[in-house]
Automatic annotation (TrEMBL):
Pyridoxal 5'-phosphate (PLP)-binding protein, which is involved in PLP homeostasis. Residues 17-221 form the Alanine racemase N-terminal domain. Belongs to the pyridoxal phosphate-binding protein YggS/PROSC family. Keywords: Pyridoxal phosphate. Gene3D superfamilies: Alanine racemase. One of its GO terms (molecular function) is pyridoxal phosphate binding. This is Pyridoxal phosphate homeostasis protein. HAMAP family: PLP_homeostasis. Coiled coil: none annotated.
């Protein structure tokens, strides 16, 4: 994919987000676009940075560590969000590099974050991942366990939880999964919802998404 195509992809996604916000009677500023740059090298990311995008999503700590420090030095104010699973032994590295972690999904990880964050001195936004489809191959807490896990994150491990993240099953309509996630967030007084990817982010915005994670529509297929 050429630089011009990536810039065009970004512009098209921005137009679609604006349209979805208008239809949902929301301000465009209420939705953060996370450009998912996982598996793409720095030379593919540079045109998107040049076009003004400043929030990016990565799946793996090691991959992000390898390619992002020079890009961050060139583009101050850029935010990195970890949207993939996080191993407990990578927590210190993740907290040092990322501005948000969207995959808090188990007690051992919450405990590790509870120790690492105060020591780091950094404010990292945390999202609890909810496995709305209860798919065995996916990470995330089951919907019926979310309230208890959120409470434990806050009370037992001293974490400030900003919101929830979900990835609906690929073979199901996403809307019911977005609705469930929004309902859990509301009853736990959480204002941030990381929902929606390239194929369904407009629907996610309709259901209150504050963060949409878009990769292929910007960067092309991997």
């Amino acid at each position: 994919m050429t630089s011009a195509m990536q810039a065009e992809g970004l512009a098209a996604v921005e137009q679609e987000i604006a349209r979805a916000c208008r239809e949902a009677r929301r301000e465009r500023s209420s939705v953060t676009l996370i450009a998912v740059s996982k598996t793409f090298e720095a030379d593919a990311i540079a045109p998107v940075l040049a076009a003004g995008q400043r929030v990016f999503g990565e799946n793996r700590v090691q991959e992000a560590k390898a390619k992002w420090p020079p890009l961050l030095a060139e583009h101050p104010g850029t935010q990195l969000h970890l949207i993939g699973p996080l191993q407990s032994n990578k927590v210190k590295e993740a907290v040092a590099l990322f501005d948000a972690i969207h995959s808090v999904d188990r007690p051992s990880l919450a405990e590790a974050l509870g120790k690492a964050l105060p020591a780091s001195g950094r404010a990292v936004e945390l999202f609890v991942q909810v496995n709305t489809g209860e798919e065995p191959q996916k990470a995330g807490v089951a919907p019926q366990e979310a309230d208890g896990f959120i409470a434990a994150c806050r009370e037992r491990w001293g974490l400030t939880i900003s919101g929830l993240m979900c990835i609906p099953p690929v073979d199901e309509a996403p809307a019911p999964h977005f609705a469930v996630t929004a309902k859990i967030a509301k009853r736990n007084n959480l204002t941030q919802l990381s929902m929606g990817m390239s194929a369904d982010f407009a629907t996610a915005i309709e259901f209150g998404a504050t963060h949409v994670r878009v990769g292929s529509a910007i960067f092309g297929h991997r």
